[in-house]
Design goal:
340 residues, alpha/beta, six-stranded parallel beta sheet, 10 helices
Length: 340
């Protein structure tokens, strides 16, 4: 582990397929970082990375791990490869940013978090929406009590593509909404149910419906699919006083606050409570939007330099993996309720 005081943090991006190019671009542009390597098995991808960034290229992770000038490894490979690559990187003394999900096994996620802590290395997971200014605004509103008691949340993250065959929609898409829900509510669910359908190849679920049961009877429902006619990334939070809709694909007004609610009034009449519906203004707050991935990469570099714990550290990644693993178990048991 090198002292990074007064110099750029040298990083290697492993995987230059779908998401790796976005990470490489951000670390290349970041003043406090230097994109030292790109690692990929595809020669054409390596040539493209070298042409864009002038960095070193290699198909072998071992070349990076043997280079003592490399401070950190960024893993953007298929989810099933995360654990082995991450473990090797930590054992080589490299700080680590792993794309979501951290691993596909709870025990492996626990192990990575423990190894990083024991070695004093930064381990961060790419739950990028926790660095989104819109999500930060909603978190602040909930924490201040502006919504009142939270009743339930629901989200839709659907599109036509990107179809995958190695992991299902639960592990590929739902980690985003799971991480957002855990972040907003500040706690773990007590149990989950999950159902889905394998429509295309009969092997992996192209659509899943995950329900998380939180303390105080708070529900969160997640609909995730790559087989849908339109691109939707939306979450609704319903409280006793106000409600919020977060639309990530909206060009304007990503967050809308609805001064709406239902309030119990008076005493019980003939065995029934009476309710009054309230409908007030709609507020669209002004948000200073920064690219969330840029904020994530900047935060990672700051944590490597300072030694502080990342917002989305290994423990954060482990919590999401626990929910995913319970959801997978429920899928295999025809939607049975699984306690976490």
């Amino acid at each position: 582990m090198q002292d990074t005081t007064g110099r750029a943090v040298r990083v290697a991006v492993v995987g230059f397929g779908y998401w790796g190019p976005n990470l490489a671009r951000n670390f290349h542009q970041l003043a406090g970082a230097q994109l030292a390597y790109v690692v990929d098995q595809d020669p054409a991808a390596l040539q493209r990375a070298q042409r864009l960034y002038g960095c070193q290229i290699t198909p072998q992770l071992d070349d990076v791990l043997a280079d003592s000038t490399v401070d950190a490894v960024i893993i953007a490979t298929p989810a099933r490869t995360h654990y082995a690559l991450a473990r090797r990187s930590l054992e080589a003394g490299k700080h680590l940013l792993v794309e979501k999900p951290l691993t596909m096994d709870v025990g492996e996620a626990e192990e990575l978090a423990a190894v990083a802590d024991a070695a004093g290395l930064t381990l961060m997971v790419g739950h990028v929406f926790e660095y989104n200014p819109a999500v930060a605004y909603i978190k602040q509103a909930i924490d201040k009590g502006e919504l009142g008691d939270i009743y339930y949340l629901y989200s839709r993250r659907v599109n036509l593509g990107r179809v995958q065959s190695d992991v299902n929609a639960l592990w590929s898409i739902a980690p985003h909404d799971i991480s957002i829900a855990l972040h907003l509510l500040g706690q773990m669910p007590e149990a989950v149910r999950c159902q889905g359908a394998s429509c295309l190849n009969g092997v992996v679920e192209d659509v899943v419906f995950l329900t998380m049961f939180f303390p105080n009877n708070v529900l969160c429902h997640v609909h995730a699919s790559w087989l849908d006619p339109s691109k939707t990334r939306e979450m609704t939070v319903v409280g006793s006083q106000k409600m919020i809709v977060y639309d990530d694909v909206s060009a304007e007004g990503k967050v809308r606050i609805y001064d709406k609610g239902a309030f119990r009034k008076g005493e019980v009449s003939y065995g029934d409570f009476q309710y009054k519906l309230h409908s007030g203004d709609i507020l669209i707050p002004r948000l200073d939007m920064q690219e969330p991935l840029q904020a994530e990469c900047t935060h990672f570099v700051d944590c490597v330099r300072s030694g502080k714990r990342p917002l989305t550290d290994g423990a954060n990644g482990l919590r999401v993996v626990r929910v995913l693993a319970a959801g997978e178990q429920s899928l295999r048991q025809d939607g049975a309720k699984i306690t976490i």
